[in-house]
């Protein structure tokens, strides 16, 4: 039974390492992993556009609500059994710092991973 669906950029080296680790830890099959860069992925069925999904990691809760950014990681890590650690990330100072750090990463990850221009769906690798 899938509890949480994460929509991730499968062309992002850092993202795929994190997702690979979470797949190994997801022994209860509590997460559905959806790579938005695969040829068979269709945004038509989810109601989000490519730019939105590339701008920040997104997840869909079992009740259909969408979450993005750090909250996605909280849901992922809770699903694989790291609830006590996740609780610490909700502390006011820690939460603000994580939101800030993730915001910087999300804005810069394409250039930091050599994929400038990927926002529109076609990448210019090494730019």
Reconstruct the topology from this structure.
Blueprint: E1 4-8, H1 13-25, E2 31-35, H2 50-55, E3 58-60, E4 66-68, H3 70-79, H4 83-89, H5 92-112
How would you sum up the major sheet?
4 strands, mixed
Percentage of helical residues? Answer: 40-55%
Instruction: Write down how many β-strands occur, each being a DSSP E stretch of 2 or more residues.
Output: 4
Radius of gyration in whole Å, from Cα? 15 Å
Which structural category do the helix and sheet elements fall into?
alpha+beta
- Listing every helix as H and every strand as E from the N terminus to the C terminus, the arrangement reads EHEHEEHHH
Number of domains: 1
Strand order of the largest sheet: 2-1-3-4
Strand % is: 5-15%
Shape label:
globular
């Amino acid at each position: 039974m899938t509890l949480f669906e994460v929509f991730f950029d499968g062309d992002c080296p850092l993202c795929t390492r994190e997702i690979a680790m979470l797949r190994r830890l997801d022994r209860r099959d509590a997460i559905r992993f959806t790579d938005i860069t695969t040829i068979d992925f269709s945004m038509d069925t989810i109601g989000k556009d490519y730019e939105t999904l590339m701008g920040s990691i997104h997840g869909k809760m079992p009740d259909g609500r969408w979450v993005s950014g750090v909250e996605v990681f909280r849901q992922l890590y809770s699903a694989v059994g790291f609830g006590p650690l996740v609780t610490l990330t909700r502390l006011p100072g820690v939460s603000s710092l994580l939101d800030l750090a993730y915001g910087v990463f999300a804005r810069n990850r394409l250039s930091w991973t050599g994929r400038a221009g990927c926002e529109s769906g076609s990448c210019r690798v090494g730019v």
